[in-house]
């Protein structure tokens, strides 16, 4: 049955409360992930922190799996938007500066979403995250390589973008989530940028 809607097509107060409660539960899950990095919260912990009954949690999420998956999907959407903004900002820059801009944008985005990423992936399974983000960005991701390698055919350019997008995600994830405590973050960003730029050199 379709929930009732107001004459102007706006959500009813009941729908608004439902949306607000769902967001509240998701926010509490993120807060618990931030407070206890790498530890997956339980539905009871979320209920306690949100000051609601466990039944309320189950009304929106049958278990922690769909809740964590929704957080992951939201993170992927945000990361995709951040990367798109980074690529856009890099378009008018010199090659090395443009790569630093892209690597910095993606690394920073991964860092902001570390609480969620840390419970959904490890250093070896970033491939699970990236396909969701990669598809919508392929056309934009071709812009910088196409400018640097005008000699490539369309197929060759697509192959290069396919490989470098994966390499970019892997490098940025390692910097954001797995770098040693004594590592120089900015230096790592610069090294990653130069490594990627080398892939576009004849």
UniProtKB/TrEMBL annotation:
Residues 19-79 form the HTH tetR-type domain. PROSITE patterns: HTH_TETR_2. The lineage of its organism: Bacteria, Bacillati, Actinomycetota, Actinomycetes, Mycobacteriales. InterPro entries: Homeodomain-like_sf (IPR009057), HTH-type_TetR-like_transc_reg (IPR050109), HTH_TetR (IPR001647). Residues 42-61 bind DNA. It comes from the Bacteria. This is TetR/AcrR family transcriptional regulator. Pfam families: TetR_N. Keywords: DNA-binding, Transcription, Transcription regulation.
């Amino acid at each position: 049955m379709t929930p009732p809607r107001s004459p102007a097509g706006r959500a009813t107060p009941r729908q608004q409360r439902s949306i607000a409660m769902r967001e509240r539960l998701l926010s509490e899950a993120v807060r618990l992930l931030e407070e206890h990095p790498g530890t997956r919260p339980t539905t009871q912990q979320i209920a306690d922190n949100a000051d609601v009954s466990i039944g309320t949690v189950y009304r929106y999420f049958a278990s922690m799996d769909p809740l964590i998956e929704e957080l992951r999907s939201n993170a992927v959407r945000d990361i995709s938007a951040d990367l798109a903004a980074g690529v856009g900002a890099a378009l008018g820059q010199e090659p090395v500066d443009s790569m630093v801009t892209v690597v910095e944008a993606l690394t920073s985005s991964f860092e902001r979403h570390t609480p969620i990423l840390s419970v959904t992936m490890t250093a070896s399974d970033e491939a699970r995250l990236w396909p969701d983000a990669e598809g919508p960005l392929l056309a934009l991701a071709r812009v910088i390589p196409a400018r640097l390698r005008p000699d490539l055919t369309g197929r060759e350019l697509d192959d290069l973008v396919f490989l470098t997008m994966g390499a970019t995600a892997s490098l940025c994830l390692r910097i954001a989530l797995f770098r040693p405590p004594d590592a120089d973050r900015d230096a790592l960003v610069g090294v990653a940028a130069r490594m990627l730029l080398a892939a576009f050199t004849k």
